C-alpha cells in the first residue's frame, strides 16, 4: 500500500470515529450527606443497586382508563394529536412525534435562518417521527439519507394538563436523536429535535449576508418552541435543561454561551464534547474555502460573486449538493462546522468560547461534563474500517506526516515538525508507537476530547456548580458487539454511554432483568435529579437523596470525576491529568 493511499485510510479512521463531528414535579428536598460517600450496594459487589425512579402515583391508573382516546393538546399553532407509548418499565406515557417547529428550509430558505412554523387549521397527527435531516451515511461506504424537510421535534411526557391537574415537570431537550424508553421511567418531559447538518447546516460565505451556523439556529428556534409551548405538555419552561452527546454536547455548550438562548436554559449536560474541543469551531475563512470548492464542483461560479454563488446553490438539487460535499471535504480535508459570525442582528456566536467566559457572558447554570474512558479506540477502528490485515508497523509512518492536520495544530504552533517530535517523545517514542500503533488512539483522544473537556470544566467550574463524569462501563451494546467482538478487549469508546441512556431502534432494548439495566437506572436517576434539583443526587431505594457526586473544586489542581462503572465512586484520573497538562504545554493557538 502506498503512503498516500494509507494516509487517506488513516484520515478515514478518524472520520469514522467522529474526531470531527458533522454536530419531577416536586419541590426541593433536603438531600442526605451519608457518612460513607456511596450508598450500600455500590463498589465491588457484582450487582449495582438501581435506586428509585421519581414518579407520581396514580399515573398508570389514569392511562388504563383513558388509553382508548388519543391524547390531544391544543397549542397556539393548532391542535396536536399524539399516541400512547409503553416504556421499558411497563409505564405508559404520551408521545407526540414529528411536530414541525419551522417551515421547511428549502428553495429560497436554504442557507437562511429558520422561519417559525405557521399555524395549521386541521389536527396535526403527531404519531411518527419526521424525516431526518439530510446527512451523509456513517461508516464504510457512501451515500446519504434524510430530507431537507426535516425541522421536527418529538415530545414525550408522563402527564398532560387537565382541569384538575397542572403538572410542572422538568423539560429536557436532547440533541438530537434516540428513543425515550429508559429516561421516561422518570417524571420529566423529554424533547428530541432535528436540525440541519453538514453543508446545509453550516454553509457560509463569511459575510453578514450568509453568516452560517444554520444548524445551531435551528436548535435555537426549537428551544424557542419548547419555551413557548411546553407548558401545554405538562412541563415548566423555566426549568429547561439542555443536553447532548458528541456534536450535540458541543451544541449544548454553545447554547449556554449564546445570548440567543442562554437565558432560557436552567441546566446543561454535555456528553463527550464541549465548545473547546478541536472539532467544534473553525475560522470562517476555512468554511468559505470549502463553500467555494462545492460551488465550483456544481458549476455555480463563485468568481461571479458571493450572491450569485448562493442563489445558484439554492437551485441545485440536494443530491448534487451532498455529492459535491463528499468530494470537497476530501479535497479540502475539512468538514462543515460552526464559525464565529460577524456581530450583527441574528448572530449566534460572535466570540470565541474563551472570550465569552472571560467577558462573563456565559450562563451561570449547573453543568455536567462527561467523557468515556477511551473516546477513540483505534484497535476497534481498524476492524470497523475493514483493513485489519495492514502491517501495524507501517501505521505511524503514514500518520506522522499527517499529524499536524489530524491533531489540529497545523499553523497553530511556531513549528509543526518540532511539535510532532514532542508528541512522539511524550507518548513513548517511535519504537514504542511502531509496535503499539493502537496508542495513536490515545493521542487522538487526548487532543480531540480530553484537552477541550478539561478546559470546559475549568472555565465553567469558576462560575457555576460543575460536575465531571468518567464513563468506563463496558457492555454489549457498543461498537465491539456490532463487530461480534468481545467489548472487554477494548476501552469504552465514543458514544458507548448513549445506548444506556436512550433506546435505539436498531438495538434490542435493555430489559429490566439484564445486567446492564442497573447502569441504565443509575444514569437516568442521576441525570433527572440533576435536571430537577440542579444537583446530580442519587435517590436510593428508600427514597433518600444522597450526594454521591462531588462538585468540581475550581481551585484544585486535579479534577475529581464520578466514575460510572461496576465500581461507582469519585476518582482522579492521573493519565487524564498528565495528558491535558502536556497538551497545554504545547501552547497551541486554538480558538
Automatic annotation (TrEMBL):
<dbReference type="InterPro" id="IPR029058">
    <property type="entry name" value="AB_hydrolase_fold"/>
</dbReference>
<keyword id="KW-0325">Glycoprotein</keyword>
<dbReference type="Pfam" id="PF00135">
    <property type="entry name" value="COesterase"/>
</dbReference>
<dbReference type="InterPro" id="IPR050309">
    <property type="entry name" value="Type-B_Carboxylest/Lipase"/>
</dbReference>
<protein>
    <submittedName>
        <fullName>Venom carboxylesterase-6</fullName>
    </submittedName>
</protein>
<dbReference type="InterPro" id="IPR002018">
    <property type="entry name" value="CarbesteraseB"/>
</dbReference>
<feature type="domain" description="Carboxylesterase type B">
    <location>
        <begin position="71"/>
        <end position="583"/>
    </location>
</feature>
